């Protein structure tokens, strides 16, 4: 039985390593496809990444039981720990993570970004500069937070259910939430690298357009 558990654990670890490598390749592939589509600059509306899962897990599974144990009773803290892994408790965990997405943890300011676009003489395709650009950025930011929060909440709850199943079958947890955070960090880093690579390309294109306009004004 012990040998079977070790084999299953190693297989699960190898599967997560393959997923980790595939996530990196997918990020690079998407970056190459976008680069072929024309000049653009990847605007990261929400840079908090997996921070909602980190804070939500620490607060929900760590801070709340400790707080109840300090100011309540050990029996109440034990009851809360059991209730957190029930269907209602996991739903509350997911809602906590979704709500944390709406906290201003590294998100851009639409007004400042619209002003920056005006300074750089760039803008969003099909959107008038100024207030319409600010409203468009605000709308996209809210959409990112809503759908991103829903996706992160689903992933976090699924990770808890998967770890609980592994604990029953294998006798050990695979720390799936930590693996999710690692994969999210890789994807976020890939986006940052993509932005660093596209920035100089966009700047050179803008410089070429300025020189062309200046040459026409001299005619």
TrEMBL record:
Q: What InterPro entries does this protein's entry cite?
A: SecY/SEC61-alpha (IPR002208), SecY_dom_sf (IPR023201)
Looking up Pfam families in the UniProt record yields: SecY
Q: Which GO terms describe its cellular component?
A: membrane
Name the Gene3D superfamilies on file: SecY subunit domain
This protein's UniProt keywords = Membrane, Transmembrane, Transmembrane helix
The Swiss-Prot or TrEMBL record describes its family as follows: Belongs to the SecY/SEC61-alpha family.
Indicate what this protein is called per its UniProt record: Protein translocase subunit SecY
């Amino acid at each position: 039985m012990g040998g079977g558990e070790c084999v299953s654990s190693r297989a699960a670890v190898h599967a997560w390593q393959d997923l980790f490598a595939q996530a990196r390749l997918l990020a690079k592939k998407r970056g190459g496809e976008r680069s072929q589509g024309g000049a653009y600059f990847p605007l990261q509306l929400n840079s908090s990444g997996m921070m909602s899962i980190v804070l939500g897990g620490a607060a929900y599974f760590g801070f709340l039981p400790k707080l109840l144990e300090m100011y309540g009773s050990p029996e109440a803290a034990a009851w809360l720990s059991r209730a957190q892994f029930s269907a209602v408790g996991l739903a509350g965990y997911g809602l906590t993570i979704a709500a944390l997405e709406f906290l201003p943890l590294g998100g851009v300011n639409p007004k400042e970004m619209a002003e920056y676009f005006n300074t750089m003489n760039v803008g969003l395709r099909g959107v008038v500069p100024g207030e319409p650009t600010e409203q468009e950025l605000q709308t996209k930011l809210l959409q990112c937070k809503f759908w991103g929060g829903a996706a992160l909440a689903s992933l976090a709850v699924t990770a808890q259910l998967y770890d609980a199943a592994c604990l029953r079958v294998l006798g050990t947890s695979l720390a799936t939430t930590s693996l999710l955070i690692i994969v999210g960090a890789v994807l976020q880093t890939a986006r940052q690298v993509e932005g660093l690579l596209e920035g100089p390309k966009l700047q050179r294109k803008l410089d070429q357009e300025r020189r062309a306009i200046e040459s026409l004004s001299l005619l």
